[in-house]
Amino acid sequence: MTSNARRKRKDERLVQSEDEEEGISNPSMEGDLPEMTGTDSSPEMEAAEADALVKTLKTKRRKKKKELADEVISPKDDLARQLKEAKRKSQQKIEDAEREEMEESAPMSVVADDGTLPMPEEEERESVLEEAEGEEVRRLRKKKEETEETLIEGPPGEEEETPPPREEEEPPAKPPSPVPKEPSDEMPSKSLSIKEKMRMRMEKAKEEALSEVKEEEKESRKERRLQRDKKQTTRFDETKPYIGSPHASFEIDENELDRITEEKRLQRLERRKKMPAKGREGFQMPTAEEAFDFFTREWKDEEKEEVEEGVEKAETEKAEKKEGEEAAEQEGAPKPDKPEDEQPLITQDDEMVSDLPTMMCAAYTPDINEQIKKEGEIYFVPSAAEIPATQKVGADFEVRRLEDEGFYVGKRPSAGSRNQNRMEHRLLKEIEKGRESSRAWFGEDGSLLALPDPLRSLPSRPPMPEEVEPVLKLDYKKAVIREFDSRYIDGTTEGIGHYQLDVDLNQVFFTHHHLYSKEHALAQKLTSLYEQYVIRERKNMTAYLGEKLKALKNSALHLQDHIAAHKSEYNLTDRSNYDRRLQDYRAEIIQTRQQRDREEKTDRTLLRHILATWKAIKKERELQTFTNTPVKLQIRKEDGNKVEDERVWKQEVLAEIEELRDEHEREYRRNMLTYEEEMKRYQNQIQAKAEAQKRVDKRRKKIGSKQSIRSGAEDDEQHEKDLELLSEADLTPPDEPSHFDDATVRESVEKKARENRRRPGEPKLHLELSNTATITPTQNCNLDEQRRRADVSKCMIFVKILFNNKEVSRTNMKPLSQDFKVSYGQIYSMKIVQWPESIAFQVHESIGLGSTLVAELCAPIPDTSVTSVSVQLEDLEFSSDRKEKLNRAAVGSGMPFTYGSDNSQLEILMTTGILTYSVAWAVDEHGQALVPPALVNANTMFTHMKKMDPLAAIGAAGVMDLKKLADWFASSHLDPNDPSNADIVYLLRGKGGDTSHLTPAEYFRLEQLMVEFDFVTQQELEENKRFRLIQLRDEEVQEFKNYKMVPAHEREVPRDVFTEYERKKREEQRLKSEGDHDIETQRMAVKRYRQKIRDQVMRRFRRQAHMKNWEDMVKEDMVPNIALLGTSLMKVFARRTPLKPQRKKQKKVVAQSIKGDEVRIIVNISRAQNVPVRLSAAMQAGSGAVTSRQDTRPLEQTMVRPFVEVMFQHHCIRTSVGDGSNPSFNEELEVPFRAPFDDYSPGNLQTVPDAVFLNIFDEVVVDIQEDDRERGRMVHQRIEKKWLGSLKIPFTTIYFNGKIDGTFRVNAPPVLLGYVYEGLSHGPDDIGINKDLKTLLGLFISIQPPLTQPEPVKERFSTNEDEATMVQADQWKEQISSRFTPKRELKTFVTDVNFKSVFITRYFRPINPPDEFTGKGPELVARYVSLIPFVPDAAIFPGLCDIWNTCDQFLAMLSGDEEEHAILLVNYFLHMGIKAWLICGNAIPEGPTAYVLTEEANVHYIWNPSSGERFRTNDATCPLRSIGCIVNNENIWANIQPYDKPDQMMYSLTETSCWEPLFNNSRRNPGLQSIQPERLYYLQTDKDFVTELQEKIQHVLKNKVMDWRSRYITRWNRHCSQIMRKTLPLLEESLGKSVDQDHIKELEASFSSYKVSGFPINMPFTEVDPIVETVYATGVHGHESNEIEFALAVYVHPYPNSVLSVWVYVASLMKNR
Amino acid sequence: MAEVHIIGQIYGATGFPEHSLFCKWGIHTGGAWKILAGEREGQSQVDNPVNHEAAFFAHPIDIHFATKGLQGWPKLHFQVWHQDSFGRNELYGYGFCHVPTSPGQHTIECPTWRPSGTYREQVTQSFLGGGPQLKNPDLIYSSALRCKLTTVAMGTVHLKLGVILRNFDKFGIEC
Question: Inter-chain contact A1014–B43, Cβ cutoff 8 Å?
Answer without folding.
Answer: no
